[in-house]
Amino acid sequence: MSQLAVRNNDNPLLKPSDLRPSAEGLEIECLLNPGVFQFNGKTYMLVRVAEKARQREGYFSVPVLSGSGRMDVIDIPLSDPALDRSDPRVIRYHDDYYLTTLSHLRLLCSDDGHRFFEPPESVILRGEGPYESYGIEDCRVTQIDHTFYLTYTAVSPNGVGVGLITTVDWKVFRREGLTLPPHNKDCAIFERQIGQHYYMLHRPSSIFIGGNYIWLAESPDLRHWGNHRCIARTRSGKWDSERIGAGAAPVFTSAGWLEIYHGADESQRYCLGALLLDKDNPANVIARSDDPIMEPTAPYEQTGFFGNVIFTNGHTVHGDLLRIYYGASDEVICSADFSIDAILDSLR
Ligand code: MAN
C-alpha cells in the first residue's frame, strides 16, 4: 500500500458539530470537500456545508430552494413505496430525484493551515436561481492575477452543472452563471495561461455511450470554453474503474502539470491518484498512477455519512510540500501532506 500520504494527526480537522446551521429548522449533516486558497497571508477554506431539514414525524423531509431563494421543505411519506432511500445522498420519489441535504459554501479562515475558524463576518454562498435550487457543492478556487475563480457544482432538477463566481476581495461576489451546462462537474481552472489560452479540467457525466471521464477545455477569456478533449478515461478492473474527476487546479512542476484526481470503483470506494500533463500541451498525459496515492484506510475515511470516500478539491503548495484538504466519508474534513517529488517518482 502507498505510503505517500502523511495524514494530519489531528484529523478530522472539522466535523459537523463545529459549525452553526445556516438557518432555523436545519441541521448540519456533513462538512465536506473544501476549496482552498491563500489570501492576505492566511489560508482559507470554502467548505461545503450539507444541511438536512428537521424531520417531520412519518415523513422524509427534504430542503430545497425556491426561485426567490426561500427555503422550502418537501415532505415525502415514509410509508409510500414510491420512495427509494437506498442511497443516503439522493432519494428517488416516483420519477423525481432530490438530494437528502442542501449544501452551501462557507468561508473558514486559518493562521496556520491547521486550525480553521469562521470569521465574525461570515461569508455564506448559497444556491441562487433555477440551476441551484438543490444547492451548490465542491468548489474549486483558482487565483489568476488578482481575481479568484470559483467553479462549483450547481444542482437542480435541471441537472448537475458547473457554476462560476468571481471575486477579488471575498466580500463582493459576481455570479457569472453556469459556465458548463449539465451534466458536468469537477471543474478546475489552471492557474496560468499556456501560450494564448486558459485551460480547465472538467467532467461531463455520460449516461449511455461513454463514461465519467476527465476532459480538458481551453478559453481565450475564462468565459468561453471550447476545443474540448477527453484526456483520461476510467480503467476497468482498477481502482478508478467507475468514475474519475479532477481535484483542485493542477500544480505546475518542472516535470509538467500535476493533477490529483479522484477515482471510484464499482463499489463506490473513492481513492486519489495523480496525472502528469505536458507543460506546454496539457492534452498530452505523460503519466498516470497505476495504484492510488491515497486510499480510505483511516477509520474516519471508512465510516461516516458515505463511507470509504476520500475526495479532494483543495490544496496548498509550499515548495515540495503539497497539503491536500479532503472530505472523508462525506462527513468530516481532514488534511494530508505529500512530497511533490515523491508523487512524481511514483509516476516514473
Ligand atoms: C460525488 C460528489 C462528491 C462526493 C462523492 C462521494 O462525486 O457528490 O461531492 O464526495 O460523490 O459521495
List descriptors.
348 residues, Tachylectin-2, Chain A, five-stranded antiparallel β-sheet, four-stranded antiparallel β-sheet, 2 helices, 51% strand
Topology:
Elements lengths: L5 E2 L18 E14 L2 E12 L5 E7 L5 E7 L5 E2 L5 E4 L2 E4 L2 E9 L13 E2 L10 E9 L2 E10 L2 E9 L6 E7 L3 E6 L8 E7 L9 E6 L6 E7 L10 E4 L4 E3 L2 E9 L5 E8 L7 E4 L10 H4 L7 E9 L2 E8 L3 E8 H7 L2
Antiparallel strand pairs: 1-26, 2-3, 3-9, 4-5, 6-7, 7-8, 9-10, 11-12, 12-13, 13-14, 15-16, 16-17, 17-18, 19-21, 20-21, 21-22, 22-23, 24-25, 25-26
The chain binds alpha-D-mannopyranose.
The site of alpha-D-mannopyranose has 11 residues, from strand 2 and strand 11.
Query: Strand fraction band?
Result: over 45%
Per CATH, what is the topology?
Tachylectin-2, Chain A
- State the total count of DSSP E strands: 26
Radius of gyration: 19 Å
**Mean pLDDT score:** 97
Low-confidence spans? none
Largest sheet: 5 strands, antiparallel
Number of helices: 2
- CATH homologous superfamily title: Glycosyl hydrolase domain, family 43
The CATH top-level class label = Mainly Beta
Please name the CATH architecture. 5 Propeller
- SSE string, helices as H and strands as E: EEEEEEEEEEEEEEEEEEEEEEEHEEEH
Which class do the helix and strand fractions yield? mainly beta
